[in-house]
């Protein structure tokens, strides 16, 4: 599971968020073939970036296409979290 937010990020995108720049590429490089992986992404409910259907589609397609090349089973789960610190 990874938790992420775009709070205090100016113009969030897949090009400037550490989740897309570091965590996901590292995870993809280290996956072993023949296994099933479940990845849960937790984010703040109401986050305009992660609530976007376009972001979810790009994220899902990109990750699943990369891991399926290596005969991996991929399940991506989205966990909306209530930000109790706001």
Report on this model:
This protein has a domain at 34-86. The longest helix is centred in the C-terminal third of the chain and has 16 residues, at 53-68. The chain has helices spanning 18-30, 53-68; strands spanning 2-4, 36-44, 73-81. It has 2 helices and 3 strands; from the N terminus they run E-H-E-H-E. Strand 1, helix 1 and strand 2 form a beta-alpha-beta unit. The chain has 86 residues and is of the alpha/beta class. Strands 1-2-3 form a 3-stranded parallel sheet, with helices on one face.
Q: How are the SSEs placed, and which strands pair?
A:
Elements lengths: L1 E3 L13 H13 L5 E9 L8 H16 L4 E9 L5
Parallel strand pairs: 1-2, 2-3
